[in-house]
Specification:
With 295 residues, this protein is of the alpha/beta class. It has a single domain, classed as ATP synthase, F1 complex, gamma subunit (Pyruvate Kinase, Chain: A, domain 1, 3-Layer(aba) Sandwich). Helix 1 packs antiparallel against helix 8 and helix 6 crosses helix 8. About 2% of the residues have low confidence.
Amino acid sequence: MANLKEIRVRIASVKSTRQITSAMKMVSAAKLRRAQDKILKLRPYANKLHEILVNLSQSLAETQIENVYGRSSLPGKILLVVITSNKGLCGAFNSNVIREVRRLISEKYADQHRNGNVSILPVGKKGYDYFRNLNIKMLPDCNDLLNDLTFNNAVLVAESVMKSFVAGEYDRVEIIYNQFKNAAVQNLTDEVFLPVETAQPDEFSAAMPADYIYEPTKEEIIEELIPKSLKIQFYKAVLDSFVAEHGARMTAMHKATDNATELIRDLTLEYNKARQASITNQILEVVSGAEALKG
């Protein structure tokens, strides 16, 4: 059994750690509350705009109008936008994304990877630190985006990706990130950013196809609506990951605080037992000494 001093030092150390994790939990909760309001307000608009975009892309596919964002060529050159966090202490938040990216590269895009046609655009320092040591093409990181996450800053990254796609540098762009569900749950998401996919017919859409009246013309909509929708989709993905990060960190720090409290309780019990044993030994020594004097 450890001596009393060692146990006291451990109790003090765990209490200090508990204070840190508790403070981090409260900070993440405050950041989560502010960021959660943004994503909940953005989602309905972004989802509806994406629905219109998909139906527009399907409508354009039936005409002779060229849609530079909807090419249907075979995916030869792939760009994976990997959204992680700049900081750790958020549980399996980053490792889940990294594991999914590795699965895509080894299974879905194995042929492209062997030919050197898979590139990664890291948004987040954790993803950048991991993949830069592997034999994969890396684009300049966008880690600063998470330090000042605004729509205007996200648009700069989205425009760069869109220009590369239009120029033919990539045939397919996918975004891998954690989608926020609630403070304790994040859904790992693999989303096709480009090309814009057309709506898949089903029994409902076949019965009631979307019929939009386009004003202005479809050509002008291609130049305005499609790029705007893509920029919003990109911003929504980064914002979703940002909110999910704070939710994951708050949950991780809450569990760490609970574990520290439980450990302090166990150490306190061990300390009391050791102290009681020490007092008992001292009493036995006094009694033994007294009996020896009597003898």
